[in-house]
Amino acid sequence: MNCKLQSNYPISIIKLSIRFAPCLPSGRFLIMQIHRDITNLPAFRNAVITIGTFDGVHLGHRQIIGNLMNEAKKAGGESIIITFHPHPRKVVSSVITGVRLINTLDERIELLEKTGIDHLVIVPFTDYFANQTAEEYIRDFLVANFKPHTIIIGYDHRFGRDWAGDYKLMEEKAAEYLYQLKEIPEHILNTVKVSSTNIRNAILQSHIEEANKFLGYEFFFEGEVFHGDKIGREIGYPTANLKSTDDEKIALGDGIYAVYAEVAQKRFKGMMSIGFRPTVNGKIRVTEVNIFDFSKDIYGQTIRIFVKKYLRAEERFKNMEELTQQLHKDKENSLACL
């Protein structure tokens, strides 16, 4: 059964998305509701919530989500992830240039849809929201909006103005506001931290197989195809030159990679080069993809690249003939692992 369905009709407050939702044996769909307006949330049934950025939606995160869904099932309630946009560091930190995320917001939504949770609430992270006191955060945000049956957080979870709120405060307020508090086990929390750090470092250093291992899927990004100098076409390897669609998305290190390119929802094998193209005295850093057995005009289109394997470092060759010979080898190596 094909579950890749999608609607073109926008819904301003709640988006009912089934494009990536898993199929149930009966043929019904699991539908994740997406809420962007916290002033107009539904009345949740025995809400079981967890809170975080979930950047990467990696294997560590999925352990937390598994716990969330198990608790919701036991409570006869609904599983809810609360996340924030923009990233809180962009609002509360004086240094914003270092915020580079594994996923864009749309990618995060797409990945969370696949987990089978009931609700995703995207909270606009503003100066006003950041300046709530810790008690206001619990009373006016969590309790007023969600009336939680259970809250699942880590022992080091901080919230409220100046990050003054902590697990202890939330524990103290549990009896007053009639919610249960469950602590995310420390070994899972440590896995999340280690995984997030390792994934970002691995992506930056071109260790894509290590990143993919922690992610549990192939790292991907999207780029808009624009006109280049067409040197690749002259030597039999035409490339799609890509401009990133999101400046906050973390970028891979320089090198040659085996990739899949998704064009109009179809996957093709290919290879990708990131760097300054020293053989042709390139002056700017470019990302270009040679899509195998593909000849359509896709200028102006946005395509998705799934990065499978790092093949080699960027090199300066003596001439175009040497470069072409190496490209033959790169294609063979790409096909061998795709």
Q: Any key phrases for this structure?
A:
single chain; 338 residues; alpha/beta; Rossmann fold; Elongation Factor Tu (Ef-tu), domain 3; 2 domains; seven-stranded mixed β-sheet; six-stranded antiparallel β-barrel; 13 strands; disordered N terminus
Description:
It contains eleven helices and 13 strands. The chain has 338 residues and is an alpha/beta fold. The chain has two domains: 14-199, 3-Layer(aba) Sandwich (Rossmann fold); 218-337, Elongation Factor Tu (Ef-tu), domain 3 (Beta Barrel), CATH 2.40.30. It has a seven-stranded mixed sheet with strand order 1-2-5-4-3-6-7. A hairpin with a 2-residue loop joins strand 10 and strand 11. The protein is elongated, with a radius of gyration of 23 Å. The two termini are 25 Å apart.
